[in-house]
Design goal:
The chain is mostly helical. Helix content is 79%, strand content 0%. 36% of the residues are buried.
């Protein structure tokens, strides 16, 4: 017996009960709502399973919550509320490999380039900070950079990551890209000197290194190291 409610009313009733802490009432409403859905109502069913999952989570039943989020994703693989909640659960459990896997699914589910860039940056941060996987983080940020080549925050992170794995030509190229986006002449001089240092010390490319030293002095004629 659905008590005379229609589907939307039952979902609203479940949401209201969950919000007020009446967890058993919420679960009853959601289960009744599921019975009223049809097989092709993927969005409604995914939303209901997510509501059940949120209720289970509020009850402290993390495993049951996870199971219901996964039921939502089985219906709609890119359903963002379920993916975000699973990321939160995995982060709480410090299961960062799973966090990365879920964030990859959020990248795939992104609705536009801007959302995809943001998800790739979040994925790269997990790969860099938690998994200590510079190569994976680089791959994620390089994908993001194809959309936002002038994102200076991303460029600075890439520089550090390239340095971590000694990809010196990429460090030089990234320093140049940062320099292009930097307004402060003294900072540009410092960046050009860093390029010169790598070209001379790491790549043994004297003509290029000297060119970068000249560029450093053009940007900042007072640069002490470039003057030596």
């Amino acid at each position: 017996d659905d008590g005379g409610y229609d589907l939307d009313e039952l979902i609203r009733k479940g949401d209201a009960s969950r919000a007020s802490g009446a967890h058993d009432d919420a679960l009853e409403s959601y289960k009744l709502a599921l019975m009223l859905t049809t097989e092709d109502s993927e969005l409604e069913r995914a939303g209901i399973y997510t509501g059940i999952a949120e209720t289970k989570r509020a009850q402290g039943k993390a495993r049951e919550a996870e199971s219901n989020y996964e039921k939502a994703l089985a219906l709609m693989p890119g359903y963002k509320p379920a993916l975000v909640a699973l990321v939160d659960l995995a982060t709480t459990e410090k299961d960062f490999r799973r966090v990365a896997q879920l964030r990859k699914r959020l990248v795939d589910a992104a609705i536009d380039d801007e959302a995809r860039v943001q998800e790739l940056k979040r994925l790269a941060e997990v790969q860099r900070s938690e998994l200590k996987d510079s190569r994976a983080a680089i791959e994620s940020l390089e994908r993001a950079r194809t959309v936002r080549p002038d994102d200076i925050e991303m460029l600075r992170t890439l520089r550090q990551l390239y340095e971590n794995i000694h990809r010196w030509p990429k460090v030089v190229e990234t320093l140049g890209a940062i320099c292009t986006e930097t307004e402060d002449a003294r900072e540009r001089g410092t960046l050009r000197f860093a390029q010169a240092d790598i070209a001379l010390g790491r790549l043994r490319d004297e003509p290029r290194g000297l060119g970068f030293l000249e560029a450093a002095l053009e940007e900042d004629p007072t640069h002490e190291k470039a003057l030596v």
